[in-house]
Design brief:
Elements: H1 27-40, E1 48-54, E2 60-66, E3 69-71, E4 74-80, H2 84-91, E5 94-101, E6 106-116, H3 119-128, H4 131-139, H5 150-163, E7 176-190, E8 198-204, E9 216-221
Helix pairs in contact: 4-5
């Protein structure tokens, strides 16, 4: 069987360097700039982020989720609170997320504590979801748990779809909602020629207000 050797897969990173003068005073303002540029560049789902949590056993675990909002207070995403990641976040409310924008030789890492969103925030976002996704949230109540087969999942979906016809409002399940990653560390990585990458890290002072630009330390990291 022929095999592609991953060690032979190399991509040159060409382009101007990233300088301190290019960086905003607040990391989420810099994130907004880069996120907008990733979207404008036509990247597929630039809001896809690799979310890493800590299992109750102490083992790390990562998966891809979709960013659904951000501001100076942090990043918002939604899930089933009873899922594996939901249980992990309840036991250890800290996480990191990576945005792998390889096509534009960039990535962003955000790490910090995690907090639940309010019921009002959850309800407001749930109402914006397509009806099929709303039904899917009900059908996947046992997210991350074993099921017999795809037929079981389809039967659950059909049953909930019948419960709420097309003209009926689908309520948000109580076990479904959002989290916010409140940044304590944000790193911006830009690929450079000959692996001379540019890396800048923002660190927030302990106990400081994340909205305040003055509390963020910006430093360059070695590649």
């Amino acid at each position: 069987m022929s095999q592609c050797d991953p060690a032979e897969l190399r991509q040159p990173y060409l382009g101007p360097p990233l300088r301190r003068s290019d960086m905003a005073a607040h990391p989420m303002q810099q994130f907004h700039t880069w996120f907008t540029q990733a979207h404008t560049a036509g990247l597929a789902e630039p809001n896809a982020m690799v979310l890493a949590t800590v299992e109750p056993s102490g083992a790390p675990r990562a998966r891809t989720v979709l960013l659904k909002g951000y501001d100076r207070s942090g990043l918002r995403f939604f899930t089933n609170y009873g899922s594996r990641k939901g249980r992990a976040l309840e036991a250890e409310p800290r996480a990191s997320a990576v945005f792998p924008w390889h096509a534009i030789r960039r990535q962003v890492l955000v790490a910090g504590r995690v907090e639940r969103l309010s019921d009002a925030e959850n309800d407001a976002y749930f109402r914006t979801r397509p009806r099929g996704s709303q039904i899917g949230a009900w059908a996947s109540e046992r997210q991350s748990s074993p099921i017999a087969d795809r037929g079981e999942l389809d039967r659950l979906y059909a049953g909930f779809a019948a419960t709420w016809p097309e003209d009926a409002e689908v309520p948000r399940p109580g076990y479904w909602g959002g989290y916010r990653i409140v940044p304590e560390e944000v790193e911006f990585w830009q690929g450079g020629a000959d692996r001379m990458h540019d890396r800048f890290r923002y660190l927030r002072g302990a106990g400081a207000d994340p909205h305040d630009e003055a509390v963020w330390l910006l430093e360059r990291l070695a590649p």
